[in-house]
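ARCHIVE CARD
Drawer: 12
Card no.: 0347
Subject: one protein chain, sequence and derived structure
Cross-reference: see card 0346
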Amino acid sequence: MIGLAAGFATSWLDATLSSVLDILIAFPVLLLTMLIVAARGASLGTVILAIGIALSAIVARLTRVLVKQVLSEQYVTASRTSGTSWLGLIWQHVLPNIWPTLIVNFALAFGIAVLAEASLSYLGLGAPPPNESWGRMLQQAQHTVATAPIGAIAPGFAIVVLVLGVNLVADGLRDVVDPLRKRSR
């Protein structure tokens, strides 16, 4: 929503929103999530909120750029001239043209979110017990790696497989939704 607002906004509001997004993007995702969790306390809701805030700035900035590109097209200008409302422009022209890129971005951001949650849990800043986390499993298994390595191998392998799988799905989605980027075989 922030990206859509910035894309349709006047120049001063666009500049303000872009500056706020740039400040949020300047912080690494893990550092920003750690700051939010440290300020609010470790809980499942706080971890979800922190990861959401940290990754939303990237999505909002991408959405803003995509909206600006679509609004500069001649068919959008013609639609505006014919009297289409702003809401009609969003539903008829903007969203159908930006969703493919956003879907790929969401798939890639999912992998980052999994790594951020596992990292927070490993550091003790994740959701407290009885909630389970692969990061906490890794942290608890680090003392028994020499005697029972499966305790560390299993959650580590699960994280790698999930993130790699999601990234491969995102790559496949990119090929499906953007025919110009299809790989030549």
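Annotation on reverse: DSSP finds eight helices and no strands in the chain. Residues 2-181 form a domain with the MetI-like fold fold (CATH 1.10.3720).
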